[in-house]
Amino acid sequence: MRNESKFHTVWRDYLERSFTIIIPILAILAAFAVSGLIILAWGANPLEAYAALFSGAFGSPSAIATTLQRMTPLIFTGLAVAYGYRGGFFNIGAEGQLYMGAIASVWVGINFSTLPAIVLIPLCVIASGFMGMMWVLLPAYLKSRRGINEVLTTLLMNYIAIQYFEWLVRVDQYQEGVILFGGKTPVWSFVNYLGIKDPLQPFPKTPIMVEATFLPSIKSILESNLFVSLFGGAEWFQGLLNTPAFSRITLAPFLGILAVIIMVFVMFKTVIGYRSRAVGISQEAARFMGINVKNTLFTTALISGVLAGLAGGMEVLGTQHRMIPNFLVNAGFDGIPVALIGQLHPVGAFLSATFFGALRAGANKMQIITSVPIAVVYIIQSLAIVFAIAGTTIDIGSTLKKKRIARESDVKKKIKAAEGEVNNAS
Amino acid sequence: MTELLRLEKIRKSFPGVLANDNVDLVIERGEIHALLGENGAGKSTLMNCVYGVYRPDSGKIIWKGKEVTIHQARDAIVLGIGMVHQHFKLVPPLSVAENVVLGLPSKREPFLNLEEVEKEILETANRFGIVVDPKAKIWQLPVGVQQRVEILKALYRNAELLILDEPTAVLTPGEVEELFVTLKSLTKEGLSIIFITHKLEEVMDVCDRVTVLRDGCVVHTINKTETNTRDLARMMVGREVFLKIDKPVMEPGDVVLEVENLSALDNRGLPALNNVSLNIHRNEILGVAGVDGNGQTELADVIAGMRKVTGGKVTVGGKEATNLSPLDIIKMGVAYIPPDRQHTGLLLNFSLTENLIGKNYFRPPYSKGGVLQKKAIDDFSEKAISEYDVRTPGPDLQAKLLSGGNQQKVVLAREFSGQPDLVIASQPTRGLDIGATEYVRTRMVEARNRGAAILLISTELEEIMSLSDRIAVMYEGEIMGIVSAKDADIHEIGEMMAGVRRVGDRTANIDEMEVEKPS
Description:
The structure holds 2 protein chains of 2 kinds.
Chain A: H1 6-42, H2 46-58, H3 61-86, H4 94-111, H5 117-146, H6 150-170, E1 179-180, E2 183-184, H7 218-222, H8 225-231, H9 235-242, H10 252-269, H11 271-281, H12 283-288, H13 293-320, H14 331-341, H15 346-370, H16 375-392, H17 396-425
Helix pairs in contact in A: 1-16, 1-17, 2-3, 2-15, 3-10, 3-13, 3-14, 3-15, 4-5, 4-6, 4-13, 4-14, 5-6, 5-13, 10-11, 10-15, 11-13, 14-15, 15-16
Chain B: E1 3-14, E2 17-28, E3 32-36, H1 43-51, E4 58-63, E5 66-68, H2 73-79, E6 81-84, H3 96-101, H4 114-128, H5 143-156, E7 161-165, H6 173-188, E8 192-197, H7 200-206, E9 209-214, E10 217-223, H8 229-237, E11 255-265, E12 271-281, E13 284-289, H9 296-304, E14 311-316, E15 319-320, H10 326-331, E16 334-337, H11 341-345, H12 352-356, E17 367-368, E18 371-372, H13 374-387, H14 404-416, E19 422-426, H15 434-450, E20 453-457, H16 461-467, E21 470-475, E22 478-484, H17 490-497, H18 511-514
Parallel strand pairs in B: 3-8, 3-9, 6-7, 7-8, 13-20, 13-21, 16-19, 19-20
Antiparallel strand pairs in B: 1-2, 1-4, 4-5, 9-10, 11-12, 11-14, 14-15, 17-18, 21-22
């Protein structure tokens, strides 16, 4: 009855799957097209502007370095939102968790500045993830045990985190042992941690952290004994070392890629991910399948929080090395469109984070060369979001599948009819 | 009789599916016309075309001799066509009168004229012999009365043709009787009724003419008096149906499920179960009959661990299972086929494989150390799909794309995969066509023959009677009596369903009474 080759079936299956990728790509192209009209109206040539945008994002090693830098926090927040969303926990609070993660890693970096880098960096990373998790703890509890909408609670937690952060970087001096309730508070408590503003600076920012907290750059890795002893003499190796961009590319984006791989594994290959996705699809049906919905939601929220916290840690350790107000504008909130355009898949989130990062990285060059304002980039970004979300309603993939089923049942019907005629004849 | 509605060569297709093809249909004034067909035969689609929900691709709709185009439901209502959907379109917090006038202009705009409306509703209701309180809130009303409100809504809009989409699916036997009386009184007033159904007995009970649909085409239109259920069934499915399941006589084995003095609350916090005691042995099907909403769902939920017990004890296989988590109860070898496969039975956006593994994914060899084993799972899924004859292009298909019967097969495959000792089957054949129903029933009898104990909850008495070894009847959260299926008398069961306790069975301690060992 099936007279189709296996190859044919596989190919068509592939085609159907590819629609989940094609929709966001079409959305992005459409966004560029519509924004092109706006640039035209502005009085510039959109093709020139886009060429500048592209070369500013990917045109040179240093452009790529900037793109990688901009996309790293978006990878993590995108993963955080995607994992939470798939598991039925819509984490709007990635922004706040990110800030708390950044604070935690700076706190560790300042308090344990004497530790060697090999210990200190992992400690800072873990601290940021842990603090991100702590910041989602209350919403996670309220959602899973009390059924309170997580969108509200995580959103409100953002403002607490952001304002706390603003306060931290504005208060002078590090004070050891604040007098509280008539006694000195211990050194390790957050309360001590009032003044992390750099007293030498008129602006609200913290002093630069010790170098042991800097995530190693590609250059410093290449300069390590192992590589020098391997390729030390080669000309191309010296050439690599002399490329300035490599000192700006840190481990952070690679940790981001590692996180993507880990999340693919967790989401689709583990019991935790299975439960989490089941709960995300239907809590009722998951409960009937014997899944503990409350615990699963709680775990999902915590994992989401860890990822968002790591975004803050990566930015501090990899790029900023200090905290300044608005050090990561909206990276947490942008995690939501990153995840949605990425079709709530870790790899998709990575790709759309690349897109978002490239837009930001290329915007400056576009403004300098063609005088098209940076704001156009945000128009492109927003249009892409709108089109991508509109596109998900099309759902061509399952329409095709339905068609295939119909076709197959048509065949069956015909066979049935033929059999019927035979029966009637006999 | 004169002709009211004529459909000519109606054709309606959805992307990839031809739902109706060349359908001709004539409705006379004052007749009850049954539209009979299996699930997916295109009955509802056809009527939605008439009611303006869909627009036919081609074909004519002729109303009272004039060709009309119906773009939306409002057009149909203006013409005088009313439809009562399977799932009522009522607003629960509003009163009957408010629901009836919803969407109609008030005579005292911008104010409501509810008192006047209430009077009019009462007049209409009296004219057709429908009993309803216009001031009652919808959520307080039983399903049967809600349906009357829907009918009243159509009548209030001066409907001349009433389309009822599977009206009996949600009703108790008593309510069905009442509905039929109402329908007959409506036709006496000159209304025509289209009665969509897949139940043959109802056609013979109430209808004047029957049109049988199969695969979107009209097979035959015939007067009721010229046919019988057997012929109709053959027309519906294109083959003979044997709903009598072969069930060998078996001696019940050890007690698997023991329920003692069980009490529980329903979703609103009101008592749903009251001192329920029963037990089921190996190789035995215990059917729980009763009008829907008398505690059967809660009973199933409580045993499966989905609902807290407020009093009493549940024992499975000799081990205490009261108030354990659903997962613990699954691990004790209990399978649960939930009543609603769309919402609780399946994860519609999961693939078939992911659904099939739903009760085993945490066990080796399907997962090791928290990591799913793709190979083992794929093998399992492939085997289940072929064993349970799930019609699908592949195991990666999302469950929502399957037809109802195939979805239920997936649920069965998942639940029976662990060779459960106890199967709780709640409405396992609801909404399935004859072929799928037969399949599900056969599988349950197989499980029983293998040695499982089965708790079968169904509102269809015919299903209970043909499958069960013993029959328990529930009424308002209590067990009215448990009888052996062999000497079950349908009238006695009917009385128990209406709340008459079985004489000499006041303690409801049935273990001793039922053991009439088959010779």
